[in-house]
Amino acid sequence: MPALGGETLAIAALLRSLEVMPAPIRAPSHTLPDYWSKPLNQTLIQPVPAGTPWTDILVAETHLGYALTLNRYFAGAQSPAAIAGLEFRFRRDNSPVELITIDPTAEVFRDGAGVYPMVYRDVFFWVPDNQVVALQVRNPTAFQRTAFCALRGWYMQQRDSSNYTDVAGMTDNIREGGG
Amino acid sequence: MPSPDDFDRAQLVPDEPGADVRDVVDREYWHFATPTEPRTPKILTPNDDAPILPMMEAPPVPMETQNEAWIHARLPQYDDPNFWAKPFNPVGLVCVPYYMLWYCAYRIRVPDMRMLVVNGISWQFDGGLAIDEHFQVKVMRGDDHVLTVTDMLASVADPDPAKQYVMQGHLDPMPTHVIADQNQTLSVWVRVLGTLPYNKLTTNAFNGCFRCLLQGWLASRMDSRDGAPQPVDQPPDMMREVVDSALQREIDGRTYDEPKAKPELHNERTSFTWST
Q: What is the CATH classification number for the domain harbouring B124?
């Protein structure tokens, strides 16, 4: 029988302690908001003039030291989308997000034409404080349209959740590579 | 129809030597039956009665007891209410007499050893609001601005007030995650802007009433195991109040392993160097 080393004894003590105590387990901060999170609820009702090129219509606010998890959104028009002709897309920093296509010819954010309220759709953006995520709109038609937009998510502390002292290292808050 | 008396007993003469007349009666009585062959028992070889078993691997054996550990995991109360949490579903109502002014529709001071978590808000106007008129709803925590939402009465085609506004309805509350800690005040405010462009003044009468519905829970900050006053969901140095307006101060001031020692007063004074 091998001799019990210090690590073995430590693991045995840990297992024993876990057996007798309820262990608090929390999800990573980019999965669920935590105690230190700050909610993000941005909405916009904005007329878009005719012929507007791609323009930022709703920019997710960022705070220094806080990363943003953007998990729901909607983007539509007051008229039925298929008639309104507004087109939306997401922008991260200086490039459009190619993997998200917001269909301008279908009512994807409502139960039907003229039916309210708008319906959120799921999305996942993790935005560190040195990046920008914005919802862009353009109006290729000859008529002014009113856009309805909303972003929902939460801010999370952009730091190491294991010791609350450093932003680097093994953490659930990835400092870089959020894109 | 033949009579039983016409039965010709001469037909019952056995036609085989040694046969009984009752055999003839049976044969005639069961003439319609299919003749059967007597069953002969099958002689089993040693492999014929073996059960069919998979021949791949041995059956599993139970895990050894000493390798098992049960962990009673629980989520923090800012994610899920626990046994000691109280439901929080209030309704706030305020009448809005004028445009462009903020009115407080709901206010609560979170009681001691409780933490309020609001995960959904919905609202409606009880009259006064016209189609395409905008209004803003903001949530304050003490003096801190938590969020502001702009909404609009978009349609009255459906008489249900839960299906008339753009951003939310009572059936689809606006998802959010607002936390107010003990002794903090959470309030919901409303301001009617009117239609675009916003040219209403604070002297323009509105004469409508605003109603907001909140949903969430009042979490207990006690120890969830024994009820002792030991807050467990937050690290010890996180037990102060949440202040959103001082984000950078939080970042700079947070030291979890080694709290910064506050300088003595006289050291603080002597550290000043005036360049006059």
A: 2.60.120
Say if residues A137 and A54 touch (Cβ distance below 8 Å): yes
Q: Do A41 and B248 touch (CB under 8 A)?
A: no
Residues of B in Cβ contact (< 8 Å) with A63: 247
Min distance B201 CA to chain A CA atoms (Å): 20
**How far is A81 from A112, CA to CA, in rounded Å?**
10
Q: What is the ipTM of this complex?
A: 0.78
Reported as a pLDDT band with limits 50, 70 and 90, residue A32 is confident
Q: Domain for residue B30, yes or no?
A: no
Specify the number of domains making up chain B: 1
Residue A118 at interface with chain B, using a CB cutoff of 8 Å: yes
Question: In this structure, what token pair is assigned to residue B267?
Answer: 């050291």
Predicted confidence (pLDDT) per residue in A46-90, tens digit:
999 999 999 999 999 888 778 899 999 999 998 776 778 899 999
Contact yes or no for A41/A149 (Cβ under 8 A): no
Q: Give A-chain residues touching B152 at CB under 8 angstroms.
A: 45
- CATH number for A34-157: choose from 3.30.300, 2.60.40, 2.60.120, 3.30.2440: 2.60.120
